[in-house]
Amino acid sequence: MARLVAIALLSAAFLGFIAAPVQAQGGSALGVKHHFDWSKKLQAQSELEALDHTLLGDQIDLQSGALTFQQVDVSLPGNSGLEVSVHRTRAHGRESIFGGFKDWTLDVPVIRTNIPSSQWSATNGRWGKQRCSLPLVSSIPYQHRVAQQDGFTESRTYNHGVIMDIPGRGVQQILDNPDGASWPSTAKKVTAEGWYLTCISNVDGAGTEGFYAFAPNGDRYKFDKVASRRYVSKIETWFAWMDFGNRFYTYFSDYMSYDMLAATEVVDVHGNWVKYTYDNDGRLTKIDSNDGRRIDLLYSGTEGWVSHVVANPGTADARTWTYQYGVKSVLERNTESANPSPTNKYYNYSMLTAVTLPDGRSWTYDLGGMNAESVPGTNLCKQLAQTVSVAHPNGVALPHRGGPPVMLVRRFPRSGVHAATSSQ
Predict the structure, then answer these.
(1) 363: number of CA atoms within 13 Å, CB side?
(2) Which of 209 and 302 is assigned the larger pLDDT?
(3) Cβ proximity of 312 and 296 under 8 Å
(4) How far is the C-alpha of 74 from the C-alpha of 77, rounded, in Å?
(5) What is the pLDDT of residues 296-344, one digit of tens each?
(6) What DSSP line would sit under 259-277, residue for residue?
(7) Could you write out the DSSP letters of every residue in 115-177?
(8) Residue 374: helix, strand or coil by DSSP?
(9) What are phi and psi for residue 92, nearest 5 degrees?
C-alpha cells in the first residue's frame, strides 16, 4: 500500500512538472514559437499570373454601345479596406470631367452636375449654393432647352441631375430624401444603392454647402472641395428639314461645363482614414492615409497635366509612374452631302500617349479616334470608321492592317452606337 502511494505521489509531481510553465532565467515564461509553412507563403510569389479579358481595361456599355477604358495605375495595400490608389478613365468623346491626363480623366470621389456652357453664368446659370438643404430642383439651373441657330437641344439630352461618382464604388444618382423612408433623421439626400447624405455648411467661406455621404458599410465621405471645369464635353444636335422634296440636315453643338464637390476625406467605422489634398487650382496633389500609405501627383506645363505619380515618396520603396502626351489630327466628321455647310472637319487633339511603369515597361495609347463626332445614320453623311489602339506593357499584340502591331483595335461607326473588336 505504501508503495502505491509513493507511485501516485511521483506521478502527480511529474504531471505537475509537465503542466507548469517553463521558466527562463529571471523567472519569466519562455515565448511560444510559431511555425510558418514558407513553401505555401512563397508559392503565390513564384507562380505567373495569367492575364484575362480585362487586361486592357476596356468596357462596353451593352445598352448604348459606348466604349470606355479604365485603368488603375497605382494601388497601395494597407491595414484597412480604404483605397489609396490612382484611377483614370477614357470615355468616348471629349469628356474628361476632372482632367489630370488630358483625354483621360483622373478619377476622384466627386459629386457633380453638368451645365451647357452657353448657359453658364454667375446668375442662375450655376449649381446653387444651397446644394444640400434645399430640393435639388431648386439648386440646379432649369433649362428647358438650349437654343442654337434653327433648333434646340432638350435638357434631357445633356443633364442627368446630380451624380456621385466614387472610383471602385460606381456612379450613383443623388435623390431628394423621400417622405416616409427609413433613413436617419439627418439625411437630406439618398441614393438607390442605400447611401444617404447630410449637410456641411459654408465649405468655401462663401455660403456653399457640402455633403457627408454615408455608405451602407459605414464609410463616410466628406465632399467639401468646391471645383468647376469649363468646356469638358460636347453635345451635337442634328435635325432634318424638307425643301421642295429634298431632305437637308443642319448641325449645331454646345459644350458641357461642370460644377463639382470633390472629396477631401473618407473615414471607416473603425476610424481609419484616407485624405485627398488639392492645390489652389483644384488639382489633386496628394493621397495619404493614417497607416502611412501615400501617393503624390506632380504636374508640369502651363496646362497642368500630371507628369509623374510617386508612390511612397521619400522612402526606400518609392516608385514612379511617368506620363507622356502628344497631339493627333482627327477627322471628326464627314458631311460632304449635308447642308448648309458640307465639310470634312479635322481637329488636333492633345492626348495621353504613354505611361511608363517603375520597371521600365510602358502602356502606349492611340485613342484620338474616340473624339470623332456622331452623325445621322443616312447616306447624306458618310459613316467612316475610326481606329484606336492600346498596347499592354507585357507585349501581347494583335496585328493591325495598315500599321504596326497594336494591342487592341476598336472600330467606331460614326453613328456612335456600337463598338466592335477587330483583329485584322
Answers:
(1) 23
(2) 209
(3) no
(4) 10
(5) 999 987 668 999 999 999 999 999 999 999 988 877 665 554 444 545 6
(6) EEEEEEEEE-TTS-EEEEE
(7) EEGGG--TTTSS--S-TTTS-HHHHSPP-SEEEETTEEEEGGGT--S-EEEETTTEEEE-EEP
(8) coil
(9) -70, 140
Residue 367, pLDDT > 60, answer yes
Which helix or strand (DSSP H or E) is residue 409 part of?
Answer: strand 408-412
ω into residue 340 within 30 of 0, thus cis?
yes
The phi, psi pair for 14, rounded to 5°, reads -65, -45
How far lies 327's CA from each of 53, 345, 349, in Å?
29, 16, 5
- In sequence order, the 6+-apart residues with CB closer than 8 A to the CB of 274 are 82, 83, 84, 265, 266, 287, 288, 289, 290
pLDDT digits (tens, 9 = 90+) for 234-282: 766 665 555 666 656 566 667 788 889 999 999 999 999 999 999 988 8
Q: Angle CA(174)–CA(178)–CA(179) in degrees, nearest 5? A: 160
Calpha distance 420→402 (Å, rounded): 18
Return the sign of the alpha-carbon dihedral for residues 85, 64, 103, 111: negative
Q: Under 8 Å CB-to-CB from 198, ≥6 apart: which residues?
A: 132, 184, 186, 187, 188, 211, 212, 214
- Which parts of 335-367 are beta strand (E)? 344-356, 362-366
Can you tell me which residue has the cell 499570373?
A: 49
Per residue in 62-84, pLDDT tens? 776 678 889 999 999 999 999 99
Please state, as a whole number, how many other Cβ atoms lie within 10 Å of the Cβ of residue 384: 15
Concatenated DSSP letters of 39-89: HHHHHHHHSPPPP-TTTT-EEE-TTT--EEEEEEEEE---SSS---EEEEE
Contact status, residue 324 vs residue 78, Cβ threshold 8 Å: no
Contact by Cβ (8 Å): 203, 111: no
- Grid look-up 501627383 returns 297
Cell numbers describing residue 382 = 458618310
Query: What is the distance between the alpha carbons of residues 317 and 314, in angstroms, rounded to a whole number?
Result: 8
Count CB atoms within 10 A of the CB of residue 106.
Answer: 21
User: Does the pLDDT at position 183 exceed 50?
Assistant: yes
Q: Within 13 Å, how many C-alpha atoms sit on residue 331's CB side?
A: 17
Return the C-alpha torsion angle 74, 76, 81, 84, nearest 10.
-60
